[in-house]
C-alpha cells in the first residue's frame, strides 16, 4: 500500500532527492566511490557544496553581502550561536512556541532579552500581534513557522530593527525579503534534506560587532572564511540538500512552491472546517501552510484512537500530534504531493461516514 508521509521532521523528501542520493551512495559523480567515502575536499564534493550554496542564493534571491553556510549542530545550536555572534547588549524575542522559548533561554546567557510578547497562556495557538520593539535592540528574533503548534508568520515583519529568524520548518515555502535579515537559520530535516546539516544565511556586516571572544567553531566568521570547510561538513546531507534545491528549481522556484503549498493547505483546512468530527487548533489567521494541527471536536473526543488506527490502515504515516498539543498534525512540506493531501481528506470523509 502507498504510504503518505506526514512526519514533522525528519520528513518527506522528493523522490528526485531520494533517488539521486541512492545512486550517489553507490557511485558518486562517476568517481566509482560512494558519497559516503569521499573526501570533503575532493573536487567533486567541493563542486556539490559550491553549487548548493549558489542555488540557495539564486532561489531565495539573496542580495550581495550575505553568506550561505552549512553547519552541524542542528537549529538548536543556532539558538546559542546567533546571540553569541550578534547580541551586543539587548535583543527582542517573540515567544511563539517551544522552539522560540528554547532560543530565548539560550540568548539569556549573552545579554538582556526583551520578550516582546508570548502566546504561551493559550498553548501557543496564535501569533501575538501589536507588540513593540525597543529601538535600541540589536535584533528581533522570531520563529517563522511553529512546527509543533501549526502557526506561521508568512511575512517578513516590518520593524525598525534587523531580523533574525528560525525558518527551520518553512524555508523555501515562500519568497523572502532577505535584505531585512541579519541572520536566517534552518535545520535541513524539514524542508531540505536528511538530518545533520543546518543552513545559515548571514549578513557579513552584522558580524564582528560584539566584544566577547567567540570560540572558533561557534564563530560564523570561521565558516564564512573557510566556505563551510573549516572542519568536515556533513557531506551526505549536503549532497541531498543539493538534490532538493535542483528539484525546487525544476518546480519553478519558491513562487511556484508557495502557490502549491497554499493549495494543499486550503484543501486540508477546508475539510477540517467542514467535517463535523474535527476542528483546527491554530487561530485561523495564523494557520501554517506547513504543519496542519487538528483535534476531534468536543462531541467526538472518544474517537481519537479509532481515527488514528483508521488513518494508519489507509497508509497515513506520522499524523499523531506533538505530545504538547495532542490530536493530529499533518506536516505538508514542499515535497508533499497534493495527491497525499487529497488521500488524507478522503480518509477523513470516509471516517465521518461511519459516525
Ligand atoms: C525542528 C525544529 C527545531 C529543532 O531543530 P534541530 O535541528 O533538531 O535542533 C528548531 N526550530 C524549529 C522551528 C523546528 O521546526
Overall pLDDT: 97
Strand content: 15-25%
Question: Would you give the CATH topology of the largest domain?
Answer: Aspartate Aminotransferase, domain 2
Count of extended strands? 14
CATH superfamily of the largest domain: Type I PLP-dependent aspartate aminotransferase-like (Major domain)
The sequence of SSEs as H and E is: EHHEHEHEEEEEEEHHHEEHEEH
Compute the separation of the termini in Å. Answer: 25 Å
What would your notes on this structure say?
The protein has nine helices and 14 strands. The chain has a seven-stranded mixed beta sheet, with helices on both faces. Strands 11-12-14 form a three-stranded antiparallel beta sheet, with helices on one face. It has two domains: about 5-10 and about 250-355, Aspartate Aminotransferase, domain 1, CATH 3.90.1150.10; about 15-250, Type I PLP-dependent aspartate aminotransferase-like (Major domain) (Aspartate Aminotransferase, domain 2, 3-Layer(aba) Sandwich), CATH 3.40.640.10. The two termini are about 25 Å apart. It is of the alpha/beta class and about 350 residues long. It is globular. The chain has helices at about 15-25, 45-60, 75-85, 100-105, 220-225, 235-250, 255-275, 305-315, 340-355, and strands at about 5, 65-70, 90-95, 110-120, 140-145, 145, 150, 165, 180-185, 200-205, 280, 290-295, 315, 330. Pyridoxal-5'-phosphate (PLP) binds next to helix 3.
Amino acid at each position: 500500500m502507498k504510504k503518505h508521509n506526514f512526519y514533522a521532521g525528519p520528513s518527506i523528501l522528493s523522490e528526485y532527492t531520494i533517488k539521486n542520493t541512492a545512486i550517489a551512495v553507490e557511485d558518486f559523480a562517476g568517481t566509482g566511490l560512494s558519497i559516503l567515502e569521499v573526501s570533503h575536499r575532493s573536487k567533486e564534493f567541493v563542486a556539490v557544496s559550491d553549487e548548493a550554496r549558489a542555488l540557495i542564493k539564486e532561489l531565495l534571491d539573496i542580495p550581495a553581502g550575505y553568506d550561505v553556510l552549512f553547519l552541524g549542530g542542528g537549529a538548536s545550536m543556532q539558538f546559542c550561536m546567533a546571540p553569541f555572534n550578534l547580541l551586543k547588549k539587548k535583543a527582542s524575542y517573540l515567544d511563539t512556541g517551544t522552539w522560540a522559548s528554547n532560543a530565548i533561554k539560550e540568548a539569556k546567557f549573552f545579554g538582556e532579552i526583551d520578550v516582546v510578547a508570548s502566546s504561551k497562556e493559550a498553548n501557543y495557538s496564535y501569533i501575538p500581534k501589536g507588540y513593540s520593539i525597543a529601538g535600541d535592540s540589536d535584533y528581533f528574533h522570531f520563529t517563522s513557522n511553529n512546527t509543533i503548534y501549526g502557526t506561521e508568520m508568512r511575512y517578513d515583519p516590518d520593524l525598525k530593527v534587523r531580523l533574525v529568524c528560525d525558518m527551520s520548518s518553512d524555508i523555501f515555502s515562500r519568497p523572502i525579503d532577505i535584505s531585512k535579515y541579519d541572520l536566517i537559520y534552518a535545520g535541513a530535516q524539514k524542508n531540505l534534506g536528511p538530518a545533520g546539516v543546518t543552513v545559515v544565511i548571514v549578513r557579513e556586516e552584522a558580524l564582528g560587532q560584539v566584544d566577547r571572544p567567540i570560540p572558533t567553531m561557534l564563530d560564523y566568521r570561521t565558516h564564512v572564511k573557510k566556505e563551510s570547510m573549516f572542519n568536515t561538513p556533513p557531506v551526505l546531507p549536503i549532497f541531498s540538500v543539493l538534490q532538493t534545491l535542483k528539484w525546487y528549481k525544476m518546480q519553478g522556484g519558491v513562487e511556484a512552491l508557495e502557490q502549491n503549498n497554499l493549495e494543499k493547505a486550503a484543501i486540508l483546512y477546508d475539510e477540517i472546517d467542514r467535517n463535523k468530527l474535527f476542528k483546527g487548533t491554530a487561530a485561523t489567521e495564523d494557520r501554517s501552510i506547513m504543519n496542519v494541527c487538528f483535534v476531534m471536536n468536543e462531541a467526538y473526543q472518544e474517537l481519537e484512537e479509532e481515527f488514528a488506527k483508521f488513518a494508519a490502515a489507509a497508509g497515513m504515516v506520522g499524523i499523531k500530534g506533538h505530545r504538547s498539543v495532542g490530536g493530529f498534525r499533518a506536516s505538508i512540506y514542499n515535497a508533499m504531493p497534493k495527491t497525499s493531501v487529497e488521500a488524507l481528506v478522503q480518509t477523513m470523509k470516509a471516517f465521518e461516514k461511519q459516525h
